Amino acid sequence: MGHLLPTDNLFLWTVTWLIILFCLLCALIIAQYVKILNRNKEIFSLKNKLVSAQYTIEELTKEKVEKQKFADSLTNAEVTTKLQEPRLQIKNQGIPETPEKYRYLASMARGGMSKKDISEILNISLDEADQLITLAQIAK
Description:
Low-confidence stretches: none
Structural class: mainly alpha
Number of strands: 0
């Protein structure tokens, strides 16, 4: 039993090399598994960053829309002010206000009174009443 046969020696070398190859294969599999885990962590991190960026974009878009609405309102207010300036200048220059009977006419027309009734009450022609009602409607 003290002497090894050449076939026994070959068998030991073969088993030894198979064990070494098996260990190397296991090491490669473990290394690939670790790489996959690290990539999954990177993917998860990038996904979180993407969701955060999408949320930020949504918030910035909402903010931009609100700022645009405000800017539009401001522009409308400026236009309205510019349109009202001539009226204010006329009022401040002492130009007389609309005569009282014409103010009554506008009020009666808004109240649904007919042209004929308005012309009789204010003692004006039917054509004049028609024109003044049209002007009052435009002035609204």
